[in-house]
Amino acid sequence: MANVCALCSASGETADIPVAPRDDVLALCQTCQNGVENGPKDGPHWQCLHDAIWSPEAAVQVVAWRQLQQLTESPWARDLLDIAYLEPDVLAWAEAGLPAADAVEHRDSNGALLTAGDAVVLIKDLPVKGAGFTAKRGTAVRNISLVADNAEHIEGRVEGQRIVILTKFVKKS
User: Fold this and answer.
1) Which has the closest alpha carbon to 171: 104, 126, 105, 107?
2) Can you give the pLDDT at residue 42?
3) 2 falls in which pLDDT band (50, 70, 90)?
């Protein structure tokens, strides 16, 4: 069937792809379908997520959010995730469909469990490599992101720079 892709708006052949764990389906082009099934590779095609994340259709937001979660090595995807807002029920839906490989626990210097979106405070002056400044002790870092495959790393913005911070140098606020 000829249709329009729900993510990138490309015209042509599409396939109906379910958006687990609900029964909603989206019509996706072959490129978007491959990205959903096998993980997206950073490239110009995925710039379509800039529009898709703001779609009025919840299923499109869910798939766009999940794709952005897999593109976190790309600065533009991290920045888009930082400003994206999903309603709480839509966010729960999006998170429910992610692989359960996120069994890595991130803990601060006191052993408190950290979650994405938490605020932390630096407990030590940290020189920021490549940025030319030192993040001072006592600096609050809000809305942190967790590095999925490393329990000792979190990401956050300090002085407008997105940096990786070791969990042993922070305490949860």
Assistant:
1) 107
2) 82
3) low
Please classify residue 56 by burial: count the beta carbons closer than 10 Å to its beta carbon, then call 0-12 exposed, 13-18 middle and 19+ buried: exposed
Confidence band of 129 (pLDDT split at 50, 70, 90): confident
pLDDT at 141: 95
DSSP conformation letters of 31-54: HHHHHHHH----SGGGGGHHHHTT
Length of the chain counted residue by residue: 173
Domain 106-172 has CATH 2.60.40.10: no
Question: How many CB atoms sit inside 10 A of residue 108's CB?
Answer: 20
- Domain ranges in the chain with CATH number 2.30.30.40: 106-172
Assign 103 to helix, strand or coil: coil
* Residue 133 in tokens: 């400044």
Write down the residue that tokens 């692989």 correspond to: 99
